[in-house]
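Students often ask why inverse folding is considered easier than folding. One informal answer: many sequences map to the same fold, so there is more than one right answer. In these notes we will look at a single instance of the problem. The structure comes first.
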C-alpha cells in the first residue's frame, strides 16, 4: 500500500470524509498555504455551508488533516516494517526497504509533518506540537526494532533524526542516495552498539 494520498472518487462517502480526503491529497501534494478552501470545496463536491458545518475554519481542517495523516502514515509504517522484517520479528534492517517503498512512490512529497511545520510553524504553533507527537510515535516504532539496551531510546532518537534527514534529502536528490547514506548511519550505530 502506498501512503501517498489519492483524491476521493466517490460521492457516496459522507461530506466530512470527502472534504478531509480531498484536503489530504491537496495539502500533501501542493502544500497547505497553496490550497485554498474554495478549491477543497469544489474538488470535494460539497457546498460552502456543508464545508463550514464540518470544519468551521481552515485551521480545524489542518488539524484534522494532520491527525488523518498521522493515523494513515503510522499504519503504513508499522505494516511496512513488518513486511520487510524477518518472519520471526521486526528488525532495524527493515527500515531502509520500508522507506525505499515510500520514497519510490510517484506521489512522494516528503514528510507532511516536516512540510507543515515549515509552512505553518510560526503562524499556527500547534502544528509544531502535532509534528512532535508524530515524530515521537515514529521513534517509538524505531525503538521497537532495536534490541533491548539501556541506550535504546537514545539510539532510536538518533535513527529517527537520520530518517528525517533521509526523508528531506529524498525530495531533492536521488532517493537511493539518501537511503544509502541512512544505511551507512545505521551500520555505524550498530557497530557502536556492538550488534
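Output (designed amino acids):
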Amino acid at each position: 500500500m502506498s501512503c501517498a494520498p489519492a483524491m476521493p472518487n466517490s460521492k457516496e462517502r459522507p461530506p466530512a470524509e470527502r472534504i478531509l480526503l480531498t484536503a489530504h491529497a491537496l495539502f500533501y501534494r501542493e502544500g497547505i498555504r497553496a490550497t485554498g478552501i474554495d478549491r477543497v470545496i469544489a474538488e470535494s463536491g460539497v457546498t460552502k455551508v456543508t464545508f463550514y458545518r464540518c470544519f468551521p475554519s481552515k485551521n480545524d481542517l489542518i488539524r484534522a488533516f494532520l491527525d488523518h495523516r498521522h493515523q494513515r502514515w503510522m499504519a503504513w509504517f508499522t505494516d511496512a516494517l513488518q513486511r520487510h522484517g524477518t518472519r520471526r520479528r521486526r528488525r532495524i534492517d527493515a527500515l531502509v526497504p520500508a522507506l525505499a517503498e515510500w520514497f519510490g512512490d510517484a506521489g512522494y512529497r516528503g514528510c507532511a509533518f516536516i512540510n507543515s511545520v515549515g509552512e505553518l510553524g510560526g503562524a499556527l504553533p500547534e502544528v509544531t506540537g502535532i509534528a512532535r507527537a508524530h515524530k515521537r510515535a515514529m521513534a517509538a516504532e524505531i525503538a521497537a526494532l532495536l534490541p533491548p539496551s539501556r541506550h535504546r531510546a537514545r539510539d532510536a532518537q538518533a535513527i529517527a533524526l537520520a530518517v528525517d534527514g533521509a526523508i528531506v534529502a529524498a525530495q531533492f536528490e536521488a532517493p537511493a542516495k539518501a537511503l544509502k547514506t541512512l544505511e551507512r548511519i545505521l551500520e555505524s550505530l550498530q557497530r557502536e552498539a556492538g550488534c
